Amino acid sequence: MKVALLTHTPLPEHTVASAARLCYSPATIDELREKLTEDKAAAFVDMLAEIGHESPIEHANFTFGVEGVSRSLLAQLTRHRLASYSVQSQRYVAEAHFEYVLPPEIAAIPEAAERYRRAMQEDQEHYEALTALLKAKHVKEFLANGMDEKAANRAAEKKAIEDARFVLPNACTTKLIMTMNARSLLNFFRHRCCNRAQWEIRELAELMLKECVAVAPHLFKNAGPSCVCGACPEGKMTCGKIKEMREKYRAIKGAE
């Protein structure tokens, strides 16, 4: 898995602090921004976290590049609706020799890992065979309709992989670019950094959090699972490791 923060709102904490101060000040926007030092912006963002005033942090956006995650993870990720996603298409990009995610629990059992790898290889073979069969059929149809050979082959392959992709596994990797505002990210981290979250999306959330903290430490100083700054909301389903989780996220955020 690879995660990179591609771009973000310039001076995100200044932007958030300016938006928040505007709510309580008669000053012009230019005046607010001119008087806003780095220390004042940080203090204002900290105050917002303390009083729970979250709407101003929606003005800060963060765009990530993500590679090497499974299509299974994608199904979970897109449940977070206040975000924008651009995902590599299996309709337009052929999955020749596709890469896949190997779950750690399967990797830990040699027999299971070998069976898993065989399943991936079989899926690859089925995908390629289906693609070839469908392409041959479509080429004939396109040629019969007067299309030249080069164009027929190109169109036939695109149409073939559109249907052949149905045999591909959830383990097949994908890549995407995604954008979330800071408020949506805090919600994402509360749910996906939790010990009860599925392991792959939890790993993604932790890598994203590290990227966010590096550029906006005050915005994300309380980020992480709910138990980092309060009680665990999972009730009887709690992992029972609040102390360990708080220590873990202090380390992730570089806190002393």
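Above is the first protein from milestone M3; the second protein from the same milestone is given next.
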Amino acid sequence: MYCQNCGNKLNDGADVCLNCGKQLKKSQGQNFNVQNIPYEYKPISMWGYFGYELLFMIPIVGWILLIVFALGGSSNVNVKNFARSYFCILIIIIVLIILIGGLGVAASI
């Protein structure tokens, strides 16, 4: 749950926001919508994920942007986490290709 006044993350059952001191309504968690979420926690839409996926697939430029986003090029936590997970998958694929290539070379000798 987040404070509707300042956007600070709140503990469950909190009556007062520790950041701004605003008294919280008991129904605040039920009426909370995406517009009240601070930018750094806004969810990525389906088209956003698709767009980032296409961007990261571009050789060299996409990979550079992938590293930039993974290391903090965006203040949005969801974009950072998506880039980090994509980067991990890319590393796993590269390692598997090297292992399979090495096994193929060893088998042909």
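Note on the second protein: The mean pLDDT is 85.
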